[in-house]
Specification:
single chain; 576 residues; eight-stranded mixed β-sheet; seven-stranded mixed β-sheet; 26 strands; 35% helix; elongated
């Protein structure tokens, strides 16, 4: 990024490399401060007309009000009101009604804090970690300086100091350290090569964002032409997050206007280290938010067979402004690659538990969005004290089965985090995540939080399987766990992929998706059908318990009790 400051779509990006302000006067005199105040005046013109009308009658134009307010704040940080008025009497009007001025300052401060605020620094070389400490220190200093400007301004006007100080995050919500790295870039993608890699992410949670959409719609389809052919990305507008998606390396390019989704990746996918990608070629490339001139949503994937890279693409439009489009495309690309390699993608959740009686079990719960897989994990967690000695989440949304060299089957995860509905979390647990969660649309339907739930070492270790259960969220049943001994019948249930939609997508009512997985298996159904039969036959031979878990998640009044009752019944079965 070349510009020192940008502000768009409620997101501010501050470039420390271009300009770093290490005192109050430098901040107030900066282009960034001017841009924020100007934008703030435009906002109160419609949202707080009483305040705006009061001051505009004296300062006539938005430009004059903006410049006068900036100058007043600058002077108030170094002198008293009387001294300020002596310097320039035209500012006296600000203090004729001090309460009105204090309210104006409070509105400005709140406007700034409601923005998503990200700092960046661009390194020309990869260091030994010292630069990370300096970057964090610079972010902390920015926070202190902005707080001091706000407090000093108010206290000078009030004529007294505050009695209560709230140490809120007034600087940046997050920071990115960027590194220039040479990777093995095929000629078709030279237009992407100038974008620096994100090497370090700093987040000050809770990070709260509001997006244009809060559900995802449809499936990703294959394109017959490469959308990235001859594409040139502008370094001033794009960021590159190198992600480990399972055992695959993905380069995720995202437009700065979708910064909140790029930051969400840090809580969901392991950030790859420099030695993972220097001089290397990725397995997956995803360009998210490319302005191609189309107003309608365009999301698809392409198989670059020449370079053995799977390509994902989403164009710049309001329709993709939802983290589900970032996450699910990456998982689709991952799953397509695993199918190519003869592995079976699993849309579901897996947990490794050790019960207090000494028994252990590795449990996979299969289901599409809203079926109850994440909610079942939450039920396991809430029952922790009663039944469980230790619990380890292997994956919360997507994993895959793999035949080891000795013929046994092991399961692996793709993500270190979870993108879950806050309504489906225990309230106590939801509040516990405030200090590490990335929240999306917290006061709306399908409010979400992205949180870390595991480590990359854990999800990539490989685990044998004891239970494979299909999450049935729509059928009332006395017995919550139903074992299916007839293999073909079990395969039929899993492949049918039925669930009652819960509002996580635009679907309604009872819907079906092949193998409960519209992210790869639907697109490659013929090949997946072979894999399903191959793996389920082997699972059955290994005496793995295959069946259904009735979560009752979509049944009125059972969204909380259903997963819990099913978990208790499952624990009782393991204890036998």
């Amino acid at each position: 990024m070349i510009q020192e400051f940008t502000l768009n779509r409620g997101r501010a990006i501050i470039n420390f490399t271009e300009k770093y302000c290490d005192n109050r006067q430098k901040i107030i005199s900066s282009y960034a401060f001017q841009r924020v105040v100007k934008s703030f005046i435009e906002k109160i013109k419609t949202d707080d007309q009483i305040i705006y009308d009061y001051f505009i009658k004296e300062y006539k134009t938005d430009e004059e009000l903006t410049s006068s307010l900036i100058e007043v704040i600058k002077l108030l940080t170094v002198c008293s009101i009387d001294e300020l008025v002596e310097v320039n009497n035209k500012f006296a009007f600000f203090f004729e009604d001090k309460d009105m001025f204090i309210e104006l300052i409070e509105l400005l401060y709140n406007y700034w804090r409601r923005l998503e605020r990200v700092t960046i620094v661009h390194n020309n070389r990869i260091g030994n970690g010292l630069q990370n400490v300096r970057f964090i220190h610079a972010n902390n200093l920015l926070n202190e300086l902005i707080l001091s400007i706000y407090r000093r301004t108010q206290e000078t006007v009030i004529g007294d100091s505050h009695s209560v100080y709230r140490q809120t995050i007034a600087g940046a919500n997050a920071g990115l350290m960027l590194n220039n790295v040479q990777w093995n870039c095929p000629i078709e993608y030279q237009g992407l090569s100038s974008i620096p890699f994100i090497g370090t992410v700093v987040i000050n949670p809770p990070y709260i964002s509001y997006t244009k959409k809060n559900t995802r719609d449809g499936i990703f389809k294959e394109s017959q032409t490469n959308p990235l052919q001859n594409m040139i990305l502008n370094e001033d507008e794009w960021f590159l997050y190198p992600a480990k998606v399972g055992n695959l390396l993905a380069f995720v390019y995202y437009h700065k206007d979708f910064m909140c989704h790029g930051l969400g990746l840090a809580n969901l996918f392991e950030l790859a280290k420099a030695n993972d990608y220097i001089g290397k070629k990725p397995d997956l490339i995803y360009v998210f938010g490319y302005p191609d001139g189309y107003e309608e949503k365009r999301t698809f994937y392409y198989r670059d067979k020449k370079n053995d890279i799977l390509i994902g693409y989403a164009n710049y439009c309001d329709e993709i402004d939802y983290f589900g489009y970032m996450k699910k495309m990456l998982l689709t690309l991952h799953n397509l690659k695993q199918i190519e390699r003869g592995n079976l993608p699993i849309h579901g959740a897996m947990v490794n538990i050790a019960l207090k009686n000494g028994k252990t079990a590795n449990i996979i719960i299969v289901g599409d969005s809203g079926a109850g897989k994440s909610e079942s994990l939450e039920a396991f967690r809430t029952l922790n004290e009663k039944y469980i000695r230790h619990m380890r989440i292997i994956f919360d949304d997507m994993g895959y089965l793999h035949f080891e060299d000795d013929g046994t089957i092991k399961a692996y995860g793709t993500e270190i985090g979870a993108f879950v509905r806050t309504d489906d979390l225990d309230p106590t647990y939801a509040f516990e995540q405030l200090d590490r969660g990335i929240y999306s649309n917290p006061d709306r339907i399908n409010a979400r939080v992205t949180i870390s739930v595991s480590t990359y070492d854990i999800i990539s270790k490989g685990y044998t399987v004891d239970y494979v259960l299909y999450a049935n969220n729509y059928t009332e049943a006395d017995k919550k766990i139903k074992i299916i001994s007839e293999l073909n019948h079990a395969i039929q249930i899993f492949e049918e992929g039925a669930r009652k939609a819960k509002g996580t997508t635009t679907e309604k009512g009872l819907v079906k998706s092949y193998f409960a997985n519209p992210f790869g298996p639907v697109q490659e159904r013929e090949e997946t059908e072979k894999l399903v039969r191959q793996y389920f036959k082997a699972l059955s031979k290994e005496k793995v318990i295959i069946g259904e878990i009735h979560t009752s998640l979509a049944i009125d009044g059972k969204s909380k009790d259903g997963p819990r009752e099913a978990a208790e019944e499952l624990f009782s079965m393991i204890n036998e």
